[in-house]
Amino acid sequence: MNGLTEVRLIWLAGAIQVGIVVVNGILPQRLAVRQKLAEVPTFLRQIVYVHWMYIVLGVGFFGSLCFGFAHELAGGSSLGRFLSAFMGAFWLLRAVLQLFYYDKDLRRANRGLDALYLASLLTLSFIFGWAVFAPAA
Q1: 32, 85, 94, 98: which has the fewest Cβ within 10 Å?
Q2: 36/125 Cα distance (integer angstroms)
């Protein structure tokens, strides 16, 4: 592939990550998070909300890196390849957790969204892995 193709793949990864951020805006309502956490002690509920927010901010940051530094993430620099390796591993681990850790009944009840999310995770892993192992010239 040429460098422009890799940059466009990194932009696609950025768009997928922005999509994940957007979906996380509606996910709490769909999963009835407030109602399900109502019985949890306040401090634990706060931890869940803060961790969720930090993860969403981190994913938003990943997306912004993809749009602002696509050439570097596509293999244009050592730091870019390192960040691509980190993000590729991050999303691959998330895919493994999706498959083997998360509640199978909830995944089954939301089969379409689960499949779309899993496809997104694997696509992100592939794009960032490609950037590490076959960097743009």
Answers
A1: 32
A2: 31
* Residue 85 in domain: yes
Which residue range forms the structural domain that includes residue 64? 3-130
Residue 136 lies in a domain: no
Q: How many domains does the chain have?
A: 1
Chain segment 104-124, per-residue pLDDT in tens: 999 999 999 999 999 999 999
Q: Using a CB cutoff of 8 Å and minimum separation of 24, what contacts does 15-18 make?
A: 15/63, 16/120, 16/123, 16/124, 17/59, 17/60, 17/62, 17/63, 17/66, 17/124, 18/60, 18/63
Report the predicted TM-score, pTM, of the whole model to 2 decimal places. Answer: 0.92
Q: Structure tokens of 31? A: 């999963």
